[in-house]
Amino acid sequence: MTEPPSSLEDDLGERGPAPQASVPEPLPQGRWQRLVAVVAVPVASIVLALIAASVLIIVSSPAAEGSIDWTLPLAAYGALLQGAFGGPTEIINTLVATAPLILTGLAVGVGFKAGLFNIGGTGQVLIGGFTAAVVGAALADSSPWVACPVAVIAGCLAGAFYGFIPGFLKAFTGAHEVVTTIMLNSIAAFFISAIVNDVLRAPGYTFARTADVGNAALPHIGSGAFNIGVLIAFALVPVAYWLLWKTTLGFEIRTVGANPSAARYAGMSPRRLIVLTLSLCGLFAGLAGVLQILGVVGFYPATYGTAIGFDGIAVALLGRAHPVGILFSALLFGAMRAGSGLMQIQADVPIEIIDVIQAVILFFLAADVIVRKLFRLRVARAGVDEVQTVTRSYGEQAVG
After folding, report:
1. Is 227 helix (H, G, I), strand (E, B) or coil?
2. 3-class secondary structure, 301
3. Global pTM value
4. 3-state helix, strand, coil in the chain (%, to 5)
């Protein structure tokens, strides 16, 4: 029988008993107690971020009100809620803003489950959206039953391919996925801009852009911005849950993320799973770009830029890389994005405060020790710790 790798003993934690002080306190065993333990730090981080943003709003209130207004945060958050949930149109706008965040959150969260940090969501979104725009423009006059599905599939495959590249490099050369995906983000942005400006520029417009997608556009439901892509994004949440927790592939992905050496010893192929996982992440992010181009914009401008790729990192971290958690965190960020315009109009608070809130949430998630000490929380750490995945490297996965 083949001897297990020498690192397996260390990976399985058999170096000897850990110091007593490092043993975590047992978590409550009830279902609701475990749920509270899981969501405690994310919820506390949101509360602390809103408090920190309130302080910033009060300090900056003299610029808007002429004097310090202690009630300005209440007015700002009230307008934010009204802009996000104040009526059918506002709710639709929130759902439309949430849909791509769900997908980019899954693009990061599924990677976390495999111990991978997919920071290339932006490039995968751009490639997916650009491909869908090109194919959609080519099929603009075809039957919608042909043009739309073909454009969607093409964009998804392009995103998957753009995830395959860092996955292949990670698995067979050991190149860290953070480095390669950051580089691929820039390559995608500059390459697409050059192509749209010089090759695919549609005539008759004052700025560089591709032609309209025409019949390849995602069908809209009703008279607002709500389109079928929103339903697809929400439907993929239970699909992702089923994939990760109800299938053999999901078990292998989570096992490789928890302990690659033990997974290899059990007969799994970390290389294959790395490539497959990052390709799947790219597919999710590529679909997010497809929804934006075919469902909202209708063409691809040369200067197109979006933050949903990087926002997906915050969504995945806040949602603890769980599809249901990603859904709720995407709804939170989507609501803030949708309501920020009315907040700026009514309370004269700049929409950039949303970026501040998001950044502070990330800060407290990363510094969860502070949050746990401050609120005396006992939190669940089952599975792969997302924050540790951000900071550590899985060099061993490139071997064997």
Report:
1. strand
2. strand
3. 0.85
4. 70, 0, 25
